[in-house]
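Handout, section 3.2

Students often ask what a structure token actually looks like in practice. Rather than define it abstractly, here is a full record for Xanthine permease. The first block is the sequence as you would receive it.
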Amino acid sequence: MKKLDNQHNQNHIMGTLQWFIFLLANSIALPIVVGGLFHLTTEEIFYLMQRTFFVVGISSFLQGWLGHRLPIADGPAGSWVGVFTVLAYATAGQDQLHI
């Protein structure tokens, strides 16, 4: 029985580590991509990353404490990058019209 508990703990630790690495990578990459699309300065991207980490931390804490308690990535959604890309190109096109 003790060996089974040890195996369960190892699987739980590995799943937690995998979830954390995915969430961290996603939280780092998306602010950089979105900042590049909107031609933000390095300092503005830094502040965007800070706010992203803050919101991800708070939302992960709340979902673990009050929410569903499942290892679901509560970070920035990659599917929104397409929307931000369209918005960036639409605003860039408006700047070039000189109306």
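Discussion prompt for tutorial groups: The chain has a mean pLDDT of 81. How would you have guessed this from the sequence alone?
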